[in-house]
């Protein structure tokens, strides 16, 4: 799929590595850089321990084992989707928090998958050999897809581990990542959301911050806590200002080596499109939530996610609208164009061609036209039946046999589905479809079936039975025959639009192949000039970054390296203690017992991006000294290039976690497990 379908796309420039820059592969760690600058040597044993202590959350975040019995630390905002799914009208775990006082009280998550990286293998030569000279883009894309599917299946069959081929250096290398998979995951502890997300949208991407953005899960195997010998020892004292620290996490996606033409596509098309969609959704969801307290509970997570996306994309678009930044990008390409001019030209032509179909691609294949999780279920059922009869190498990647465990975990999730919310979301998406393609477009007319967007959405959502897991399971098990005879309106809609969506996807994949081949030539020119010591773009695979705990100067003001509970309460009082600067009644009743000078949040120069949320911060000894949860506003420019002047990673301090759990939440069982 074209990367422009990704709602959280991060694009950046590729300067020479300097300062504390880099999201480094565990197979090519920054040993020399760290040794020269900080006098610390990264050893293979230190690195392996950190790798196998790190956890990838399937919903796009990171975490780490912090005990030998599968206890996992991550951000509250990474876990909030699961916390929301475990909540009910009568038991709002986001609002009130959760603590399992016994192991038996830990709550099983309906569809959470965790992955721990066990090994990495370079398969570049095998992938590249499968693509022959003279093949068309369609043929080359099919050949590459087929060999990757074969590699993944062979690895899975031989090891039983989840096996993913990861594209690095824009196609300059391919590595096979093997993961141990956990699918029995249980919620252990979460603070209330007022403390976890203190300051809400106004304080998001800012510093100073005052958030207890953490929670604990536990991995289980065979209905017992998993045995995890690799885990990070807890250091309540944290790290001192100026101390060297590392992060180990899964940054989602950067494209610091994309071309100027690709940045221009983002600036002029992808980001404005996404912002229009976000503004509509945020306004509609907020108005719907304001009507009823239960509406507000059901929509809260979506609203927070939408607000987060708005702020992030607006900041990135602002960067792309900076003429100096774009001029810098153009200048950085000058030397490479001397040896790879044709590759740059092919990318420019491909980007221009893609502009003609990308809106339809996002709407129909990307699902923006439908806006409903129920439609996503219908499409999955239709496609899994169609793909099942094809050879493994010819299937869409998400429907390969090796992807089945993850697909089934999500498809048969018991998470609650609220039809009133789904109706509102689909009506908004259908209206957006009309606005982008026109009300008289043949596909639009077919989708609306002679009705207004509101009426059609109500008909589709209220008429489906796909909220019932057993209905989904019968259609899944029944295969193509069951889908062919189904009268479910969403299944029928998914079938009706599927061919056009598939055709658009095929066209996009061919375009991506042209761009990928061109980038391989550019990467070869870059390797010839600089060697391959530079880190590749983020790919939601495990990376290491390093930096130091330190504040920064903002004009004449000095921003300190850490905040305390005292400052949190000052911030609350200064804002009138109104949402989102208020605290729960339980917090207020116990706040005087807190050590008010306990560190709460801190900042460091580590290079991070989306997906690093929940990453552990460790010291030279490999001890846990912090928990990444955000970037500050100046740090958002790192989506285009790294800057050490003001950009900072923002973390929760372990002392703040311990103090709150001890005084406010009395989570003694978890504290004992952490600090024994």
UniProtKB/TrEMBL annotation:
It comes from Luteolibacter arcticus. The lineage of its organism: Bacteria, Pseudomonadati, Verrucomicrobiota, Verrucomicrobiia, Verrucomicrobiales. This is Dipeptidyl-peptidase. Gene3D superfamilies: Trypsin-like serine proteases (2.40.10.10). Residues 1-19 form the signal peptide. It holds the Pfam family Peptidase_S46. Its EC number is 3.4.14.-. Keywords: Aminopeptidase, Coiled coil, Hydrolase, Protease, Serine protease, Signal. Belongs to the peptidase S46 family. Catalyzes the removal of dipeptides from the N-terminus of oligopeptides. Residues 333-360, 494-521 form a coiled coil.
């Amino acid at each position: 799929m074209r990367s422009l379908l990704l709602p959280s796309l991060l694009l950046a420039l590729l300067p020479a590595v300097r300062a504390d820059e880099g999201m480094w592969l565990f197979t090519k760690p920054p040993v020399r850089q760290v040794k020269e600058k900080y006098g610390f040597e990264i050893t293979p044993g230190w690195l392996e321990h950190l790798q196998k202590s790190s956890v990838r959350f399937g919903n796009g975040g990171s975490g780490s084992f912090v005990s030998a019995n599968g206890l996992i630390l991550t951000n509250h905002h990474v876990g909030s989707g699961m916390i929301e799914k475990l909540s009910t009208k009568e038991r709002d775990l986001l609002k009130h928090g959760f603590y399992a006082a016994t192991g038996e009280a830990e709550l099983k998550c309906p569809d959470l998958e965790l992955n721990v990286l066990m090994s990495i293998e370079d398969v570049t030569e095998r992938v590249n050999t499968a693509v022959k000279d003279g093949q068309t883009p369609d043929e080359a894309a099919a050949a590459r897809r087929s060999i990757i599917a074969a590699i993944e299946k062979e690895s899975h069959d031989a090891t039983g581990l989840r096996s993913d081929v990861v594209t690095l250096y824009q196609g300059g290398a391919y590595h096979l990542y093997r993961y141990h998979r956990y699918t029995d995951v249980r919620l252990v502890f979460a603070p209330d959301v007022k403390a976890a997300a203190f300051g809400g949208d106004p304080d998001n991407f800012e510093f100073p911050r005052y958030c207890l953005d953490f929670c604990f899960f536990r991995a289980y195997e065979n209905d017992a806590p998993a045995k995890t010998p690799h885990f990070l020892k807890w250091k309540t004292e944290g790290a001192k200002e100026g101390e060297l620290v590392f992060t180990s996490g899964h940054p989602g996606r950067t494209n610091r080596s994309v071309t100027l033409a690709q940045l221009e596509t983002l600036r002029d098309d992808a980001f404005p499109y996404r912002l229009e969609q976000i503004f509509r959704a945020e306004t509609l969801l907020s108005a719907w939530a304001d009507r009823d307290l239960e509406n507000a509970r059901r929509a809260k997570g979506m609203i927070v996610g939408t607000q987060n996306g708005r702020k992030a994309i607006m900041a990135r678009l602002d960067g792309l609208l900076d003429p100096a930044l774009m001029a810098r990008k153009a200048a950085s390409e000058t030397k490479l164009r001397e040896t790879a001019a044709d590759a740059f030209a092919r990318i420019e032509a491909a980007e221009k061609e893609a502009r003609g179909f990308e809106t339809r691609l996002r709407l129909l294949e990307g699902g923006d036209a439908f806006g409903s999780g129920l439609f996503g279920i219908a499409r999955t059922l239709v496609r899994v039946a169609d793909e099942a009869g094809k050879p493994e190498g010819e299937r869409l990647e998400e429907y390969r046999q090796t992807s089945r465990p993850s697909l089934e975990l999500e498809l048969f999730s018991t998470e609650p589905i609220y039809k009133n919310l789904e109706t509102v979301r689909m009506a908004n998406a259908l209206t957006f479809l009309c606005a982008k393609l026109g009300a008289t477009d043949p596909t639009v007319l077919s989708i609306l079936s002679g009705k207004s967007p509101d009426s059609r959405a109500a008909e589709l959502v209220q008429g489906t039975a796909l909220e019932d897991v057993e209905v989904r399971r019968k259609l899944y098990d029944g295969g193509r025959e069951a889908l062919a005879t189904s009268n479910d309106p969403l299944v029928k809609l998914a079938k009706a639009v599927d061919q056009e969506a598939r055709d658009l996807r095929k066209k996009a994949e061919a375009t991506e192949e042209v761009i990928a081949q061109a980038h391989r030539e550019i990467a070869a020119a870059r390797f010839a000039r600089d060697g391959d010591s530079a880190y590749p773009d983020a790919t939601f695979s495990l990376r290491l970054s390093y930096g130091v705990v330190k504040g920064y100067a903002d004009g004449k003001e000095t921003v300190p390296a850490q905040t305390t509970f005292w400052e949190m309460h000052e911030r609350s009082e200064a804002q009138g203690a109104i949402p989102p600067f208020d605290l729960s009644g339980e917090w207020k009743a116990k706040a005087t017992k807190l050590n008010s000078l306990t560190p709460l949040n801190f900042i460091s120069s580590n290079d991070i991006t989306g997906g690093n949320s929940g990453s552990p911060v460790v010291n030279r000894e490999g001890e846990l000294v912090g928990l990444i949860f955000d970037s500050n506003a100046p740090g958002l420019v790192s989506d285009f290039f790294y800057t050490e002047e003001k950009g900072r990673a923002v973390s929760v301090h372990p002392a703040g976690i311990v103090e709150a759990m001890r005084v406010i939440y009395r989570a003694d069982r978890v504290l004992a497990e952490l600090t024994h």
